[in-house]
Amino acid sequence: MGSIRVVFVLVPKLHLLDLAGPAQVFSTAETLGYGYELTYVAEADEVMTAQGVPLKTQPEWPELGPDDLIVVPGWRSPRLLPVPPIGPETRQRLRDHHAAGGSVASVCSGADALGAAGLLDGRRYTTHHDLTEMMAARYPRATIVRDVLYVVDDRVITSAGIASGIDLALHLVAGARGAEAAARVAREMVVYARRNGDELQESAMLRHRGHLSDLAHRVQDVIDARYADRLLLSDLADQVCVSERTLTRMFTTATGLTPLRYQQLLRLERAEHLIGHGSTIEAAARAVGFEDARMLRRLRSRT
């Protein structure tokens, strides 16, 4: 089994986790004997990360073959820069590697570098949810896929923000070395065993937490921890020392949902994850707290 070379292209203000997550996956795979070799290149001898940690880089690009991979981690970019921080030579290397049969990947805003190299044109891709509209406008010949973890299209692999780079890397290990290898790496790293690419970037636990109601947050804490249990509205109201009517009114004002609907969303997301990993609808329904699969089927049909 020959080694797969993974080249990380480092740019100024890159996010450490965009780099460290995938690098940890591939280096753990190497430690476990799956044959990976990591290289870090840049257009400067040293790159400063967004978190203030300077990184030394290697001056020369290695020779790459069709089995090798180039990864562009993302950089700090609440908005896209006028021009992605990679020069013409790096763009050409990305194009040449892909044209020779190799794979290229990005994390978060790293997709902007692939777009600048022309590798998104005619392909599907994703990026961090904060950048989707700007990327869609910048690369109209590409098709952006919103709110998923990663997208694979003709050896161009793009992932969402920050931690999703781990999911992308585990997916690539599974494709190159098998699902057992990816599972061993995930277990060694103590991370969620490989999430599917079409899972949501933001869970309901995050989407409905952007309010300032302490009462609603406390109720959400209870539901988050016990979403598979039968939770009575009266018990939730007792937890926060208000009436059922007051609880429903304040919770709905803060989150846009009733407590029951919020619990159903959590159950539905967890069930979709289980189904995506091979569970039957019936087994998933039982695992998340439904008495049978009928309610789960109704909720899935609505969404």
UniProtKB/TrEMBL annotation:
Keywords linked to the UniProt accession: Transcription, Transcription regulation
CDD domains registered for this protein in UniProt: GATase1_AraC_1
Annotated HTH araC/xylS-type domain residues: 217-303
Single GO MF annotation: DNA-binding transcription factor activity
InterPro entries, A to Z: Class_I_gatase-like, DJ-1/PfpI, Homeodomain-like_sf, HTH_AraC, INH-QAR
Protein name: Helix-turn-helix domain-containing protein
